[in-house]
Give the backbone structure.
Amino acid sequence: MRLGVRGAAKTLILAVALAGLAACSSTGSGTTNPYHTEIERVLAQVTSEFQRGVLEDHIITREEYDEASSLFLRCLEDKGYNVSREWQNAYYIYAVSPGGSGADAAHQECVTEYLDPIEPLFIATTTNPENKPWNEAVVECLVRIGAAPAGFTLKEYNSLGVSPDASPNDPGDLFRDSDAVIQCSMAPNIDAVDENF
């Protein structure tokens, strides 16, 4: 059973979820952390002492994310599952075996205890550190890495629909199967396309 983000469809789901986090942002909090409002909201709801300890300084470091991920892995292993993880651009993807409804339930329990909301907040704060609207950050990434022409706009990006059915032969067309589009959609802070993706 593959858990995490791997293909374009799951990338789109993650991008939409992260866009939701960005949409909740308010920079009027008087703080320089663009995610202060989201973290405050999460702190008011979190019940895990581990998560509270990670979030109370309003910064999630790579070391804290690694610890949360390791505790998540150990949680699943303690429940009898084989788990592996692989770093992909800006976060881990996980593989759990054997699969099935028991694995789904165990996964959800361990995610709730260790990863959620730490993982989505870590991804958001590292891939979109300025907490810009998600698609705006993606467009800036596409232009920065040369996958879209200078002056390419959010309106143009949105008009493309970024559909897997879009034709790669249309001039200036961006399509979902493009490594650049996929990678910028996953981590709009990148400076170059990872050819080993």
Summary: Residues 62-78 form the longest helix (17 residues). The CA atoms of residues 167 and 175 lie 7 Å apart. The radius of gyration is 18 Å.
